[in-house]
Structures are given as structure tokens and as C-alpha cells.
């Protein structure tokens, strides 16, 4: 789905990312940051500029230090959840079944009925549009419904504070959330996750359903018959 960008770049290290940012600035090339494509639809006309994706080994690390976890932006959210279950660390089970990368999940404070990512975030390491790297700690961060006060161009990693717990009990919670979502969401399809934010007091999916738009197709994008706030790829 969607058109092509002028440039698609996957730097391998933070230093390479700094160099890419510098070159883009020198040549007046607009920068777009892409996670795993959740909540994202790209115009068939494509993008004029450079799309940067942080997915190489350095950017996919998950590091453990007791009850603290440093998750890099390119780590897969589902892998982070399951790895924490294996380590007996509780606090992000609510992210079960949510597609995407850690960076994107932090930026939009991913979550749902069971809780949000921001509750576990202690600090984030960021890079601005000039290539400067800096950190923001919990008192400087604000997490709200599907938004944060993070304005930096790149999220490099997030440090999480979790709680030691019984792995089997955490896994039971994860399975309960997964079953609930599997019964109510099109998890077995190629989809971009929930697209629209819920207006206060009402479900966006219910509004789209009431408008009779389930099954609506434009090109290869289709409004899911199972949950109207999901757009799936035909």
C-alpha cells in the first residue's frame, strides 16, 4: 500500500544516524521517521524526502538490569512483552496484541483497555533534527491518551521500570488479553492497528460501524468487517 519515498534509509548505528541527519539537513531533504508501520497509511503519491527506519541490530536491543529494562526503538513490541514475561517482569502486559515498534509505542503512548505504555517509562533517550542526543526523565515526560510531549525527531530507546512477579501468572494475564483481542480484532490479517483515536466517551470503531463503512475498500485498503477501527491490506 502507498507510494515510494525518494530515499529509504536504515542506519546501523547511532553514529550513522547522526551522519544521515546531517546530510539530509545539508541537502534540504525532509526527514520522515518510520517504525513498523502501525497506525500509518502512506499516499499512493509517495513521499518527497527520506524515510528513516531504525531496525538494525543496535536499534533492536532489549537490555535487562534487575527490574529495569532498556528497550531500543527498533525492538518489536510483542518480543519485548514476551521477553519480559520470560524474565518474570510485570508491567507491560497491557501491550499484548499491539503491533509495532518500541519507538512508535512510546511516541504515541500505545495501549488500550488494559493500560498504556507510559506507565512503565522512566526515561527516554532522544535525538533531535540536528543530530543532538539527549535524555528526558520521568518528571519531564507527559503521557496522555495516545500522545506524549516528546517532540524530538527520533526516540532511540526507553528505560522501563517493571516489577518482579511470577512468570506463569504474567503469562496467564497475557493469554487472557490475547484471547479477548483475538475475539474482537482482526489480528490474523495484515493490518495497521487501530487507526482513529476514540472521541471522549465513545468508540471510534462503533461510530465507523454506525456509518455503515465496514468493508469499505479504497485501493488495497479495507475497513475491517470484524472491527471498524482497523484498516487491513487486501
UniProtKB/TrEMBL annotation:
> Chief subcellular site?
cytoplasm
Concerning Gene3D superfamilies, the annotation shows: 3.30.465.10, UDP-N-acetylenolpyruvoylglucosamine reductase, C-terminal domain (3.90.78.10), Uridine Diphospho-n-acetylenolpyruvylglucosamine Reductase, domain 2 (3.30.43.10)
| PROSITE patterns per UniProt | FAD_PCMH (PS51387)
Which UniProt keywords are given for this protein, alphabetically ordered?
Answer: Cell cycle, Cell division, Cell shape, Cell wall biogenesis/degradation, Cytoplasm, FAD, Flavoprotein, NADP, Oxidoreductase, Peptidoglycan synthesis
Q: What EC number(s) would the UniProt record show?
A: 1.3.1.98
Name of the featured protein: UDP-N-acetylmuramate dehydrogenase
Q: Where in the cell is it found?
A: Cytoplasm
Instruction: Provide the leader sequence positions.
Output: none
Tell me which GO cellular component terms the UniProt record holds.
cytosol
Q: Which organism is it from?
A: marine sediment metagenome
What pathway does the annotation place this protein in? Answer: Cell wall biogenesis; peptidoglycan biosynthesis
Cofactors required: FAD
A UniProt-annotated Pfam family: FAD_binding_4
**Protein transport: present as a keyword of the record?**
no
Please give the biological process terms from Gene Ontology that the record holds: cell division; cell wall organization; peptidoglycan biosynthetic process; regulation of cell shape
Return one GO MF term. FAD binding
Amino acid at each position: 500500500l502507498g507510494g515510494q519515498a525518494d530515499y529509504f534509509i536504515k542506519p546501523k548505528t547511532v553514529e550513522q544516524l547522526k551522519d544521515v541527519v546531517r546530510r539530509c539537513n545539508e541537502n534540504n531533504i525532509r526527514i520522515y521517521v518510520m517504525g513498523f508501520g502501525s497506525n500509518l497509511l502512506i499516499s499512493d503519491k509517495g513521499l518527497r524526502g527520506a524515510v528513516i527506519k531504525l531496525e538494525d541490530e543496535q536499534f533492536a536491543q532489549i537490555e535487562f538490569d534487575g527490574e529495569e529494562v532498556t528497550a531500543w526503538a527498533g525492538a518489536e513490541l510483542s518480543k519485548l512483552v514476551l521477553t519480559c514475561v520470560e524474565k518474570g517482569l510485570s508491567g507491560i502486559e497491557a501491550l499484548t496484541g499491539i503491533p509495532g515498534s518500541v519507538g512508535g509505542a512510546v511516541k504515541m503512548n500505545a495501549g488500550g483497555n488494559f493500560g498504556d505504555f507510559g506507565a512503565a517509562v522512566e526515561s527516554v533517550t532522544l535525538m533531535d533534527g540536528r543530530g543532538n542526543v539527549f535524555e528526558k526523565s520521568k518528571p519531564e515526560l507527559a503521557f496522555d491518551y495516545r500522545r506524549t510531549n516528546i517532540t524530538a525527531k527520533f526516540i532511540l530507546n526507553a528505560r522501563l521500570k517493571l516489577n518482579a512477579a511470577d512468570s506463569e501468572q504474567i503469562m496467564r494475564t497475557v493469554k487472557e488479553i490475547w484471547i479477548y483481542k483475538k475475539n474482537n480484532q482482526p489480528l490474523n490479517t495484515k493490518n495497521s492497528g487501530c487507526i482513529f483515536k476514540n472521541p471522549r466517551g465513545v468508540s471510534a470503531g462503533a461510530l465507523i460501524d454506525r456509518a455503515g463503512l465496514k468493508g469499505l475498500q479504497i485501493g488495497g485498503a479495507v475497513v475491517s468487517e470484524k472491527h471498524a477501527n482497523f484498516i487491513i491490506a487486501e
